[in-house]
């Protein structure tokens, strides 16, 4: 089953796994050593990340190594961008409004 990338980043443990593997390839045991949860629990998180396309697992001899494939995170960036644009426009409009109010107040004070 292919999972949604948003499911992957919803969990703090999975975000930390992505963080660890983003900078260097690690075997499954090395990943698990970074957490105070059971190895089967870490394996479940890794499975979800793999199903989302954020991790790729490659067999090298007897070891299985994870490396990050973060292209899927572009979906998150694209989704968040629409809200960044929305709030940028709203905050810019608020800035114009407050500047106008301040100028109006200054003009009133100068007339007194």
TrEMBL record:
InterPro entries per record: ArsR-like_HTH (IPR011991), HTH_ArsR_DNA-bd_dom (IPR001845), WH-like_DNA-bd_sf (IPR036388), WH_DNA-bd_sf (IPR036390)
SMART domains with a match to the protein in the record: HTH_ARSR
A Pfam family the protein falls into: HTH_5
N-terminal signal peptide: none
GO MF, one example: DNA-binding transcription factor activity
Domain (HTH arsR-type) ranges: 1-88
Name this polypeptide is given: Winged helix-turn-helix transcriptional regulator
Organism: Mucilaginibacter rubeus
